[in-house]
């Protein structure tokens, strides 16, 4: 038996042996990743591999494929021509079988898929977007979701996912805000570790595990003006302390892969930043996994960043800096073989990259188990269990922003309800970006959710779309106003959309029906590449709300969107406001259960919501020296970080600290009693913040360093404890190293960053 085929040997040893048998064409082939959906044709359910793919396998091989099962307008894979759960697994098996049986060394292909909030394939469960997942503040539940996503992906043969997104949101005008967990690095770090644990499981070669790819490394959420892939102006101290922190936590959790960001930092594109890719990632953190570019990132080096003369130069710079594989393979596939043959690429540099790719394949068990089980795929993907999990996550992440005079929950017998708005019954609008096509019956819209909730109460529900997300058409106003006039309660479902053009046509504003036309339309105002100058509602949505308000009806606003909305008029005039972000396929049921009190809202904001876009940046952990106010308005957000209301009330008391003085080598225990003082069961998110009174470099006034979500019955009290040691007190000092300075610290515990109780802690010099 050839040594690399011996499963009893360590992955690294097997990879070394296989590398020694490879020629230069085969080595370069391992670093190339073509688009997977272009490797086959589906004709009436019969999958045929393309001749181009077959030829590529024979001429050196294909290391990886991107998005074999990805379905969306970009790939052109639709519900009509796409593959079901079972068919997808069978197609992957066909691809793998050809690669294994028709390449000289029988090396299986690494199948990489998008799975930010569910596997982006037909039949996959669509979970809420990460912005809502972060709003749950429930790390354990998110870890469970990651296990489900990994199981669905691996069941079809996917072995690596390009998630989680660990970018720290600094400007919510950025279209990819929805893909991120928060504006706070500590909170993101907790979800980052949980993501790796959930996706990768106890062993990468499990039938329910995939390799996690951390992205986008690094600073991507801090781009100039909130414009996607724009320059990042950030010093090393802030980079180490803020943006790199979540990645470090995920690397410590064992992440197998990482993806550099498109942006540059201080003039150096992340794709060729050896100080980050080699210095920090590998030498300081000990990362030994694979590094893959984002799609088209190498091309940007020569046509965008302009730090390379041409594709050859860009490819060599990238692999020398520490890139192991190029997503899409356009540059590596075109130039690396030529560079190696001409002596422009050192053999040891090429071998280093190939070795990392092969090692990951061995760790994933692809040489022993390259094929998926189509029957298992059919059972696991989109299961009832995963559907229920999607709904629970949505329920826990929905945030109650306003509830004037206890408008919510809606009481039984509260009369007719009018559900109005462009997001009331548009399924794609509540799913977010990076979502596959969905049959309408699979997505529970808000209208469907409310109708299902009230079907046994025989209550009449009226509906009108009113307007579109974008555009100035008021054609639907008359119908919407008539519906509102007839009802006692109006639920306005407004916001945004990250839905790409799935060919569904436009919407009839008078009837709410889908109206297919020859004209391309799109209400997309958020998502990758869709950055905004403002944070207000697009189109005539606000005008419609103002017209309905004149009727004097009880007004409940439900936002479905991918970034914060700043609309002072709505904050002032709505009786209640729910922020639901993009809640996924079960979002309508979750929203209905919150509206009618079956679920007590427990979501809390992970991004601060400004009063006006001109206040940006408003993230809570800015420096104390950032200034006080503007001429027109103060600098405080409308809704602060950690904020969220409940149908019950909570009281904090008896804050105590185990001792008031410690050294940097010691730790203390902080405890607080939290009581449900209302008459309804609910969950409170107890948040721990720390302030450093005096430090050698300027610091934020408060920083999140712990949290716990606690379920409480009416009248029940629970004691919540937090341990505070060096990890919670340290910061990056002037020498760019973590340190804990002696001095005074203030410990804050409460319901959000602006509502806490506090105590003092002194850190003294070690004796």
TrEMBL record:
Residues 684-753 form the Fibronectin type III-like domain. This is Beta-glucosidase. The keyword Hydrolase applies. It comes from the Bacteria. The keyword Hydrolase applies. It comes from Paenibacillus physcomitrellae. Keywords: Hydrolase. InterPro entries: Cellulose_Degrad_GH3, Fn3-like, GH, Glyco_hydro_3_C, Glyco_hydro_3_C_sf, Glyco_hydro_3_N, Glyco_hydro_3_N_sf, Ig-like_fold.
């Amino acid at each position: 038996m050839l040594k690399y085929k011996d499963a009893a040997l360590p992955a690294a040893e097997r990879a070394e042996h296989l590398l020694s048998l490879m020629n230069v064409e085969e080595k370069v082939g391992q670093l190339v990743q073509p688009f997977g959906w272009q490797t086959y044709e589906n004709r009436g359910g019969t999958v045929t591999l393309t001749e181009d793919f077959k030829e590529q396998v024979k001429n050196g091989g294909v290391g990886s494929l991107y998005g074999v099962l990805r379905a969306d307008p970009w790939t052109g894979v639709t519900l009509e021509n796409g593959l079901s759960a079972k068919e997808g697994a069978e197609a992957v098996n066909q691809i793998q079988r050809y690669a294994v049986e028709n390449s000289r060394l029988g090396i299986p292909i690494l199948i990489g898929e998008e799975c930010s909030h569910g596997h982006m394939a037909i039949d996959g469960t669509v979970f809420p977007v990460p912005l809502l997942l972060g709003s749950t503040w429930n790390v354990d539940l998110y870890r469970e979701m990651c296990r489900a996503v990994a199981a669905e992906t691996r069941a079809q043969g996917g072995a690596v996912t390009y998630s989680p997104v660990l970018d720290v949101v600094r400007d919510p005008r950025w279209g990819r805000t929805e893909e991120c967990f928060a504006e706070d690095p500590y909170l993101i770090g907790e979800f980052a570790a949980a993501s790796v644990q959930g996706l990768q499981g106890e062993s990468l070669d499990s039938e329910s595990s995939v390799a996690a790819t951390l992205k986008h490394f690094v600073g991507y959420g801090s781009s100039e003006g909130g414009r996607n892939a724009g320059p990042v102006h950030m010093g090393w101290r802030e980079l180490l302390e803020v943006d790199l922190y979540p990645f470090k936590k995920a690397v410590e959790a064992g992440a197998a892969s990482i993806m550099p960001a498109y942006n540059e930092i201080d003039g150096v594109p992340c794709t060729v930043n050896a100080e980050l890719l080699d210095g920090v990632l590998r030498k300081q953190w000990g990362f030994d996994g694979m590094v893959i570019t984002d799609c088209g990132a190498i091309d940007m080096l020569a046509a965008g960043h302009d730090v390379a003369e041409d594709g050859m130069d860009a490819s060599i710079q990238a692999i020398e800096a520490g890139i192991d594989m190029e997503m899409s393979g356009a540059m590596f596939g075109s130039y690396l073989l030529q560079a190696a043959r001409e002596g422009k690429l050192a053999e040891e540099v090429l071998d280093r990259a190939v070795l990392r790719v092969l090692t990951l394949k061995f760790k994933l068990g692809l040489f022993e188990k390259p094929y998926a089980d189509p029957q298992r795929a059919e059972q696991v993907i989109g299961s009832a269990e995963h559907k229920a999990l999607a709904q629970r996550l949505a329920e826990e992440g929905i945030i109650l922003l306003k509830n004037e005079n206890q408008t919510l929950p809606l009481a039984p017998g509260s009369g007719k309800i009018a559900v109005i708005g462009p997001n009331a019954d548009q399924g794609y609008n509540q799913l977010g970006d990076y979502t596959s096509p969905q049959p309408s019956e699979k997505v529970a819209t808000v209208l469907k959710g409310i109708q299902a909730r009230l079907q046994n109460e025989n209550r009449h529900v009226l509906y009108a779309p009113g307007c579109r997300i974008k555009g100035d058409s008021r054609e639907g106003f008359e119908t919407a106003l008539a519906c509102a006039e007839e009802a006692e309660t109006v639920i306005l479902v407004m916001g945004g959309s990250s839905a790409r053009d799935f060919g569904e046509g436009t919407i009839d504003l008078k009837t709410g029906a889908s109206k297919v036309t020859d004209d391309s339309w799109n209400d997309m105002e958020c998502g990758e590449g869709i950055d905004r100058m403002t944070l207000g509602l697009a189109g005539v949505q606000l005008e419609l709300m103002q017209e309905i308000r004149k009727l004097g009806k009880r007004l409940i606003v439900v936002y479905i969107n991918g970034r914060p909305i700043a609309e002072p008029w709505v904050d002032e005039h709505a009786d209640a406001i729910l922020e639901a972000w993009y809640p996924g396929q079960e979002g309508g049921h979750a929203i209905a259960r919150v509206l009618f009190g079956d679920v007590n809202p427990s979501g809390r904001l992970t991004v601060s919501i400004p009063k006006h876009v001109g206040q940006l940046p408003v993230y809570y952990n800015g420096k104390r020296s950032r200034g006080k106010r503007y001429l027109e308005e103060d600098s405080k957000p409308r809704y602060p970080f950690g904020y969220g209301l409940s149908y019950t009330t909570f009281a904090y008391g008896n804050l105590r600290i185990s001792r008031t003085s410690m050294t940097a080598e010691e730790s203390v225990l902080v405890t607080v009693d939290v009581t449900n003082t209302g008459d309804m069961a609910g969950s409170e998110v107890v948040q721990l913040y720390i302030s450093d009174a005096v430090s050698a470099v300027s610091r934020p006034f408060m920083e999140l360093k712990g949290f716990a979500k606690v379920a409480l019955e009416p009248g029940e009290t629970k004691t919540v404890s937090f341990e505070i040691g060096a990890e919670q007190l340290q910061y990056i000092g002037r020498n760019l190293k973590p340190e804990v300075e002696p001095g005074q610290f203030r410990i804050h515990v409460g319901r959000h960053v602006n509502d806490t109780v506090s105590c003092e802690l002194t850190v003294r010099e070690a004796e």
